[in-house]
User: Which sequence fits this backbone?
């Protein structure tokens, strides 16, 4: 019993003064023992509570882990709908379009016209890391019908096969590697409501053919392209005789007896600078033997320089055709060039001027043109444009076509 | 002679196409390799940033279009963060890595390029221009990035992702 009281005394001492003061001076050792008993019971009760709380925390942790996993799974599931063009393979959709308003004041009459010139949809598909499909489907001039002005066109449909990180093979229907606008012509990427005329009359952009090609590039910014493809079928008589643009077959049941090839060398090794030159050989640009249009060779070169707010583009393109008929028609040499300085007034405002000099096959395609205008980009993919053009024809008989014009346009790409 | 030349070109294209191709063509840098270059000592564990509310608004304003992800994975250590993000130039996504330190871009790398044109954006002569770029008050980069003719859309994609990385870095840094 003594030992019991002694232990109780020591325990009470260890509990400290707080307990003692709480109990208001115990009357006896027996009272102290009772206090200790109650404290012991409380300690046990608290231990039980802590044990319970720990168990609850473990359960809560498990529930949190399950909830996190469910949130991750939900996130992945939702994102799988949002990320169609995933690296695991997906199909992407994009597009561009442009609306033009032209107010032309010509010597032989005025003309006002509004035209949704191009509505284009892209469809791309990534089969795997090496094989990818690209296409463009276009409606021109809003309405395609037997008596409508427009056309529905398959402008691109090709497969790229990456052979290495620097070499790609291409097969299908693709844009030829010539000039500045032929491959990149989304409206927000260039100045002017209408595209420049050199890349319309001499380089008949948008110009696509069917065939196969290779593209290679080096770390120093030099790249090359080589393509073998279907050729032109230019008329050798009539109002559009020897007109290059009229020779595009658009790969629509196209004559393919006389193919062509195109090679391009390009340098983009300095920020803002592009230098490029392309050569094309047409084995028979009319696809008809003995009609006086036997061979064609195109040479085009351009420079593009953007430094800070200042930009400059310059391009030359020229054809040399062989054959008695084309030489007799004085259409054996067709060429043109333009120069286009531009300046960004702000991130979303830019002004430009352009001078063009053309010598095409038709009398009306021999002219010089001055223009200047402004682009406004409310966001990266949208542009509003306005420009003023003044065209003077070289031949006296064509002076009636001389005009000045105001153009307004809107374009987008996404 | 001319037909011979065209035939030779065709043979060249066919031969190159059937030659043993590189399975990693188009993939220039793995994420782990990029992280190793950003964190020399020790690579931090990845974090997940949920992009919602004001942050989503800010990201979408920077991109100029909807941001098609709920969350972004990132790596953050001290004052350095690394972001690996996808953005479409014209048709297919370009995977771009951006390292940010002290609110400035340390480097931009193209990890994988899937577009058919505009591959020039992967080269240092273009990506080096982003070094030390900050986000200005109007949400644009602090200095001009010269574009590449013929790669306008890819250039736009890289510039957008560089700006978004700076926005995300600021958010993570602020949260601590």
Assistant:
């Amino acid at each position: 019993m003594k030992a019991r009281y002694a232990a109780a005394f020591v325990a009470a001492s260890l509990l400290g003064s707080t307990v003692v003061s709480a109990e208001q001076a115990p009357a006896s050792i027996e009272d102290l023992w009772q206090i200790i008993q109650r404290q012991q019971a409380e300690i046990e009760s608290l231990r039980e509570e802590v044990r319970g709380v720990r168990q609850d925390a473990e359960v809560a942790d498990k529930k949190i882990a399950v909830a996190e996993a469910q949130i991750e799974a939900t996130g992945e599931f939702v994102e799988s709908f949002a990320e169609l063009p995933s690296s695991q393979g997906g199909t992407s959709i994009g597009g561009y379009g442009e609306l033009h308003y032209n107010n032309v004041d010509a010597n032989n009459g005025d003309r006002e016209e509004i035209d949704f010139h191009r509505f284009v949809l892209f469809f791309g598909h990534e089969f795997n890391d090496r094989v990818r499909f690209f296409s463009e489907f276009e409606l021109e001039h809003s309405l395609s019908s037997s008596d409508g002005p427009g056309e529905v066109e398959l402008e691109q449909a090709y497969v790229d096969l990456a052979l290495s990180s620097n070499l790609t093979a291409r097969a299908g229907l693709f844009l030829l590697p010539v000039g500045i606008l032929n491959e990149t012509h989304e409206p927000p990427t260039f100045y002017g409501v209408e595209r420049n005329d050199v890349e319309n009359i001499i380089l008949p952009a948008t110009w696509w053919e069917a065939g196969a090609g290779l593209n290679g590039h080096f770390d120093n910014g030099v790249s090359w392209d080589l393509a073998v493809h279907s050729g032109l079928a230019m008329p050798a008589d009539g109002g559009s005789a020897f007109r290059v643009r009229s020779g595009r077959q658009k790969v629509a049941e196209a004559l393919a007896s006389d193919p062509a090839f195109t090679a391009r060398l390009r340098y983009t090794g300095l920020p803002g600078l592009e230098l490029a030159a392309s050569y094309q050989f047409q084995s028979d640009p009319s696809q008809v033997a003995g009609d006086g249009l036997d061979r064609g060779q195109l040479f085009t070169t351009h420079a593009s320089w953007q430094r800070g707010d200042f930009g400059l583009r310059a391009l030359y393109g020229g054809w040399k055709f062989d054959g008695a008929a084309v030489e007799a028609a004085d259409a054996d040499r067709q060429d043109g060039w333009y120069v286009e300085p531009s300046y960004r007034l702000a991130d979303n405002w830019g002004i430009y001027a352009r001078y063009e000099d053309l010598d095409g096959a038709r009398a009306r395609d021999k002219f010089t043109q001055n223009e200047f205008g402004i682009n406004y980009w409310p966001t990266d993919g949208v542009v509003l444009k306005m420009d003023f053009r003044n065209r003077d024809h070289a031949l006296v008989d064509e002076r009636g076509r001389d005009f000045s014009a105001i153009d307004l346009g809107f374009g987008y790409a996404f | 002679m001319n037909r011979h030349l065209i035939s030779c070109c065709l043979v060249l294209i066919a031969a190159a196409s059937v030659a043993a191709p590189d399975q990693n063509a188009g993939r220039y840098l793995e994420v782990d390799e990029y992280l190793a270059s950003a964190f020399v000592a020790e690579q931090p564990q990845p974090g997940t940033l949920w992009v919602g509310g004001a942050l989503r608004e800010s990201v979408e304003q920077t991109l100029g279009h909807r941001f098609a992800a709920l969350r972004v994975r990132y790596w953050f250590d001290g004052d350095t963060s690394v972001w690996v993000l996808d953005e479409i130039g014209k048709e297919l996504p370009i995977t771009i890595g951006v390292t940010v330190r002290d609110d400035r871009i340390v480097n931009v790398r193209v990890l994988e390029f899937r577009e058919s044109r505009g591959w020039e954006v992967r080269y240092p002569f273009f990506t080096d221009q982003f070094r030390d770029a900050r986000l200005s008050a109007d949400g644009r980069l602090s200095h001009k990035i010269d574009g590449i003719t013929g790669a306008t859309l890819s250039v736009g994609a890289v510039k957008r992702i560089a700006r978004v990385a700076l926005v995300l870095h600021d958010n993570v840094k602020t949260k601590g």
In short: Chain B touches chain A through 56 residues (CB under 8 Å). Chain B has a mean pLDDT of 87.
